[in-house]
């Protein structure tokens, strides 16, 4: 239970960064932090006490494996996170080229 | 399990450092530290595939963010309704925390998952797919349509990046097209 709360604290750090900061790169970093926290939460839910990694062996029979299903889903989610981060950074660089700043309060033309 | 708590606290400290640093390059480096600690956490809670993927993705992410922030260090603006914004954000996060803590009471205890679906995969994974790594047997066999959909998202994002960074539309005749990232 405490470990879930720590994971939630990490998510809230990312959320605070997205809501309060005004630099586009800082907002992207906040999105990355929130994404890490969600990935970590799924794997924490899948953990089993004294568990083993879900890889079978031919010599010994391994009981007590951790849940492999969230691991499979998070594996693709991490790669997608990289792709969306690249897209965000590309947009941010275009904005920098056009307006010469990363500060969202100075980019007036975005408003309309 | 004490090392897991220490690493999670380290991740939170790294995230706070990332948020509060004024220097963008230093912030990018410290988020790299958070990602590396996350891969160690994946290793401790028995997800070796994820640890490997996380390290590779972290390096690529670091390079891309470095390309965006190098020599573009800008001062932060603190004008406008700064205090009001922070107050509203803190209130929103407090409400979110309250609801989330209530929701966490319905989750199973840490270390004792339900595994209603995964038990079938664990029992029949080797017989049905022939893969000894059960994570890859789920990714490529039991849930292959999920992976197909996620690959679609991946390639859509790549097409988006290529569309944004190309300069064909504004090219003059004697201008050389510059190569950008990706």
From TrEMBL, chain A:
<protein>
    <submittedName>
        <fullName>Cation:proton antiporter</fullName>
    </submittedName>
</protein>
<dbReference type="InterPro" id="IPR050601">
    <property type="entry name" value="CPA3_antiporter_subunitC"/>
</dbReference>
<keyword id="KW-1003">Cell membrane</keyword>
<keyword id="KW-0472">Membrane</keyword>
<dbReference type="Pfam" id="PF00420">
    <property type="entry name" value="Oxidored_q2"/>
</dbReference>
<dbReference type="InterPro" id="IPR039428">
    <property type="entry name" value="NUOK/Mnh_C1-like"/>
</dbReference>
<dbReference type="GO" id="GO:0005886">
    <property type="term" value="C:plasma membrane"/>
</dbReference>
<feature type="transmembrane region" description="Helical">
    <location>
        <begin position="27"/>
        <end position="47"/>
    </location>
</feature>
<keyword id="KW-1133">Transmembrane helix</keyword>
<keyword id="KW-0812">Transmembrane</keyword>
<feature type="transmembrane region" description="Helical">
    <location>
        <begin position="72"/>
        <end position="96"/>
    </location>
</feature>
<comment type="similarity">
    <text>Belongs to the CPA3 antiporters (TC 2.A.63) subunit C family.</text>
</comment>
From TrEMBL, chain B:
<keyword id="KW-1003">Cell membrane</keyword>
<feature type="transmembrane region" description="Helical">
    <location>
        <begin position="25"/>
        <end position="45"/>
    </location>
</feature>
<protein>
    <submittedName>
        <fullName>Uncharacterized protein</fullName>
    </submittedName>
</protein>
<feature type="transmembrane region" description="Helical">
    <location>
        <begin position="151"/>
        <end position="169"/>
    </location>
</feature>
<feature type="transmembrane region" description="Helical">
    <location>
        <begin position="52"/>
        <end position="70"/>
    </location>
</feature>
<keyword id="KW-0813">Transport</keyword>
<keyword id="KW-1133">Transmembrane helix</keyword>
<dbReference type="InterPro" id="IPR050616">
    <property type="entry name" value="CPA3_Na-H_Antiporter_A"/>
</dbReference>
<dbReference type="Pfam" id="PF20501">
    <property type="entry name" value="MbhE"/>
</dbReference>
<dbReference type="InterPro" id="IPR025383">
    <property type="entry name" value="MrpA_C/MbhD"/>
</dbReference>
<dbReference type="InterPro" id="IPR042106">
    <property type="entry name" value="Nuo/plastoQ_OxRdtase_6_NuoJ"/>
</dbReference>
<dbReference type="InterPro" id="IPR046806">
    <property type="entry name" value="MrpA_C/MbhE"/>
</dbReference>
<feature type="transmembrane region" description="Helical">
    <location>
        <begin position="82"/>
        <end position="104"/>
    </location>
</feature>
<feature type="domain" description="MrpA C-terminal/MbhE">
    <location>
        <begin position="116"/>
        <end position="170"/>
    </location>
</feature>
<feature type="domain" description="MrpA C-terminal/MbhD">
    <location>
        <begin position="9"/>
        <end position="68"/>
    </location>
</feature>
<keyword id="KW-0812">Transmembrane</keyword>
<keyword id="KW-0472">Membrane</keyword>
<dbReference type="GO" id="GO:0005886">
    <property type="term" value="C:plasma membrane"/>
</dbReference>
<dbReference type="Pfam" id="PF13244">
    <property type="entry name" value="MbhD"/>
</dbReference>
């Amino acid at each position: 239970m405490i470990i879930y709360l720590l994971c939630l604290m990490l998510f809230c750090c990312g959320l605070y960064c997205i809501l309060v900061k005004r630099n586009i790169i800082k907002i992207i970093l906040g999105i990355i932090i929130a994404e890490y926290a969600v990935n970590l939460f799924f794997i924490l839910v899948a953990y089993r006490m004294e568990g083993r990694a879900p890889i079978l062996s031919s010599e010994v029979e391994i009981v007590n494996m951790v849940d492999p299903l969230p691991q499979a889903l998070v594996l693709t989610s991490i790669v997608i996170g990289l792709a969306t981060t690249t897209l965000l950074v590309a947009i941010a660089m275009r904005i920098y080229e056009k307006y010469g700043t990363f500060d969202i309060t100075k980019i007036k033309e975005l408003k309309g | 399990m004490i090392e897991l708590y220490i690493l999670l606290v380290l991740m939170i400290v790294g995230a706070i450092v990332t948020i509060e640093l004024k220097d963008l390059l230093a912030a990018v480096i410290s988020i790299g530290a958070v990602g590396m600690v996350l891969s160690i956490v994946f290793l401790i809670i028995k997800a070796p595939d994820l640890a490997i993927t996380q390290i590779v993705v972290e390096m690529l992410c670091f390079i891309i963010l470095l390309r965006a922030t190098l020599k573009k260090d800008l001062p932060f603006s603190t004008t406008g309704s700064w205090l009001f914004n922070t107050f509203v954000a803190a209130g929103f996060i407090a409400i979110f925390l309250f609801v989330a803590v209530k929701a966490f009471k319905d989750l199973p205890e840490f270390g004792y998952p339900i595994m209603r679906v995964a038990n079938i995969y664990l029992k029949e994974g080797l017989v049905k797919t022939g893969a000894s790594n059960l994570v890859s047997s789920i990714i490529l066999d039991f849930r292959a349509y999920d992976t197909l959909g996620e690959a679609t998202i991946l390639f859509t994002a790549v097409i988006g990046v290529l569309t944004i960074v190309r300069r064909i539309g504004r090219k003059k005749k004697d201008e050389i097209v510059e190569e950008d990232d990706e």
